[in-house]
Structures are given as structure tokens and as C-alpha cells.
Fold this protein.
Amino acid sequence: MIPEDCTAAMPPELEWTGERLVPSHTGDTAIEHLHRYAFARELARGKDVLDVACGEGYGANLLSGVASTVVGVDIEPGVIAHASNRYGNKVTFSVGSCTNLPLPDSSIDVVVSFETLEHIADHEKMLSEVKRVLRPDGTLILSTPDKLNYTIIPKYQNLYHVKELFKAEFQSLLDRFFAHIYLFEQKICYGSVLAPTAGMPITGVRHYTGDFQRLNCTDGIMAAPYNIAVASDAALQMRHDVSLFQGWDIPTDLQRRLSDSEAAQAAATAEIDVLRKRLKSFGHRTVDRITRLIRPRRRRINVPHTG
């Protein structure tokens, strides 16, 4: 199958700061974000789409491959200038806040916003703005970290995050603005996928863990760090499929650490070889020097006495 190509000659990209994803960055973060956009594309076909907090613009560009129109909004003017320069032939980019969107009322079919909610304190204001720009029965696709599995259990704190939500809080927030909520969970997993043959219905997800001594099982994804919601006032014909994303030449964090470890080991081996050669050379030079020092003494010892 020939992939839908959204690439072209591109100008230099933004600097990777650790929070706003850029296409040169690999690892779990890249795979997570690309999976979300692949998921969103299924609901964006033929629609007028808004990507809120679009950042570098790669996601809005991917959405433009299937959408009727795409608008990308970000609060940083420099980021919008970059995105316009890089993807502006297919996407319209505008400076704006997620709580003050630069679009008219009822102008958008699908709003996409990934990893935005946790960066602001006033979640209700953001969702009010989303509802304002959405057409009746429009759709919101929203992702945010799960406070329990992203922060509390792993004892991790993201300094960029202002207000994270537990899954129940996320559900409750969306319930106040939309009639229908469809929740999904996301997690990077290193394991084996066993799924029904294409075309067969999926009735649930079983997450197995274990080793050679024991096996465990739970319904759904165990300890998923991200919650994703599809929200609308319309009862959508949602396919609750289990989806898998594999990046092309995008290694996971584990693969990248293994590669870095192998590179470090190769560098250390090369350095050891150099030191061995130097030591061997030093040994030869030392022997030669000692030989030169003792040779005259041998001559003096071997001179016959003529007195």
C-alpha cells in the first residue's frame, strides 16, 4: 500500500525544548502523538478541522491529507510563523489561545487538541470556546495525561503542567459540555499483540502480564498514562477498535536507549583498543630505553683487565 504522503521540501524545524514535539524527535512521545493524529484522521475525513495548540504544525499537516480544511492555532507567534512557512500551502495557521480562539461561532466540524488541557487552569473556559466554534453536533477529540498513572504512581512531575485530571474528573468535565462521551486509553507497551482477523468484531481488550512462574490479566489497558476522549452532542457511530501504531524509522525510548548503550559500548571498546596499543608501544619503548641504558654497562663489565 502506498502511504498518503504529506511531505515536501521543508525549511529548518523548531528547536526541541522537551515539551513541544518536533519531527526530528524520536521515542515514545513521537509515537504517542502520531498515533493520536492517525486516530483523529478517521474522524476528520471531509470535515472542517481545527487543531488547537497545534505547535510545530506537523499534526495539522497530517490532518490536511483527509480533511476538507484545516486551521492550526497556537499561542506562540514564532511557532505560527514557522508552521505557516512549513505547511502553509495546505493549512491556515493563526495566533490564538485555547481560551480565546480566533474563529467565528459554529465554523468548525472537528476540534482536535492533544496534550493542551493540562497546561491551563481554566478547563471550563477552554471547553466553552471549543463549543462556541463547533457547529451543532460537531466533535471534539481531546487527550490529556491521567493524573494517577502519569504522575502519582510513577512519582513523576511535569513542570509544564498546570492542572492534571484523574480519569473520573476528565469524564465529569466533558459530561458538563457534551451529551455523548467516548473514552479511550493510551499506553506505550513492549509486548505482543494478538487481535481478531481484519473484519472480525472486537468486544474488549485483555491486558496480560507475567513471566515463567505466573500470569495475570485485566480488562482494558493496565495503568494507561493518557486518556483520550471523543465528545459530541450527536450520537456518533464510533468504532471502538483497538489500534496499534508503529513508526517508520521512529525508535521507541527503549530502542533508543539500547542503541545509545551499544554506541557507548562500541566507543569504549575502541578507546580500550587505543589504550592497549599505546600501552604496548610504551612497553616496547621502555624495553628499548632500558636496553640502551644497560648496554654500556655490559661493555664495561666485559672489558678485559690489562694491569
Notes: Residues 1-10 have pLDDT under 50 and may be disordered. The chain is about 35% helix and 20% strand. The beta strands are 48-52, 69-74, 92-95, 108-114, 134-145, 180-186, 206-210, 215-219, 226-232.
